[in-house]
Amino acid sequence: MTAPNPAESAQPSNFNLPNVLTSLRILVIPVFLWLLLTGQMWWAFGVFVALMITDKLDGDIARARNLVTDFGKIADPIADKALITAALVGLNIIGVLPVWVTVVILVREFGITLWRMVMLRRGLVVPASKGGKIKTTLQALAIGLYLLPLPEWMDLPTWIVMLAAVAVTVITGVQYLWDSRKQ
């Protein structure tokens, strides 16, 4: 039997590229919201897309380079929720999205987050599901469409994508709860 290698069991430093990207994402959210609220839609769209890309990148880099940290596990979902919340609330404020859409999505998002914390305290980790990833993609696509200054004929397709995002958001929330009953 060999002694464990301390380098293998050591937690990576919190100061690493994925955590820097996550932190930058959090810091840029107010800039995104300001662009949205001041009607600079192309810039708001560009910043939103950049923030969504960094969301994907930080996780991929963390896993590929074994840089997963407790900070990243906590900060990444906070950054995700903060961006989606800022985008939906901003779209409500400028009057292009009904408030009920934001309420439904955010009740599910924060409800499942709280539920995951309760499950974690019981020793059960609830990983992101494939449906959860589809939900995030649909939410980002719908928000992106609302941010783009599209011609009026795109209002209906944009609304349909948002309704699909709301439906998948609710369905995946129910699915998480249903699956937890089986455990």
Automatic annotation (TrEMBL):
<keyword id="KW-0812">Transmembrane</keyword>
<keyword id="KW-0808">Transferase</keyword>
<dbReference type="InterPro" id="IPR043130">
    <property type="entry name" value="CDP-OH_PTrfase_TM_dom"/>
</dbReference>
<keyword id="KW-0443">Lipid metabolism</keyword>
<dbReference type="InterPro" id="IPR004570">
    <property type="entry name" value="Phosphatidylglycerol_P_synth"/>
</dbReference>
<dbReference type="InterPro" id="IPR000462">
    <property type="entry name" value="CDP-OH_P_trans"/>
</dbReference>
<feature type="transmembrane region" description="Helical">
    <location>
        <begin position="82"/>
        <end position="107"/>
    </location>
</feature>
<dbReference type="Pfam" id="PF01066">
    <property type="entry name" value="CDP-OH_P_transf"/>
</dbReference>
<dbReference type="GO" id="GO:0008444">
    <property type="term" value="F:CDP-diacylglycerol-glycerol-3-phosphate 3-phosphatidyltransferase activity"/>
</dbReference>
<keyword id="KW-0594">Phospholipid biosynthesis</keyword>
<keyword id="KW-1133">Transmembrane helix</keyword>
<dbReference type="GO" id="GO:0016020">
    <property type="term" value="C:membrane"/>
</dbReference>
<keyword id="KW-0472">Membrane</keyword>
<comment type="pathway">
    <text>Lipid metabolism; phospholipid metabolism.</text>
</comment>
<feature type="transmembrane region" description="Helical">
    <location>
        <begin position="26"/>
        <end position="53"/>
    </location>
</feature>
<feature type="transmembrane region" description="Helical">
    <location>
        <begin position="156"/>
        <end position="178"/>
    </location>
</feature>
<dbReference type="InterPro" id="IPR048254">
    <property type="entry name" value="CDP_ALCOHOL_P_TRANSF_CS"/>
</dbReference>
<protein>
    <recommendedName>
        <fullName>CDP-diacylglycerol--glycerol-3-phosphate 3-phosphatidyltransferase</fullName>
        <ecNumber>2.7.8.5</ecNumber>
    </recommendedName>
</protein>
<dbReference type="GO" id="GO:0046474">
    <property type="term" value="P:glycerophospholipid biosynthetic process"/>
</dbReference>
<keyword id="KW-1208">Phospholipid metabolism</keyword>
<comment type="similarity">
    <text>Belongs to the CDP-alcohol phosphatidyltransferase class-I family.</text>
</comment>
<dbReference type="InterPro" id="IPR050324">
    <property type="entry name" value="CDP-alcohol_PTase-I"/>
</dbReference>
<keyword id="KW-0444">Lipid biosynthesis</keyword>
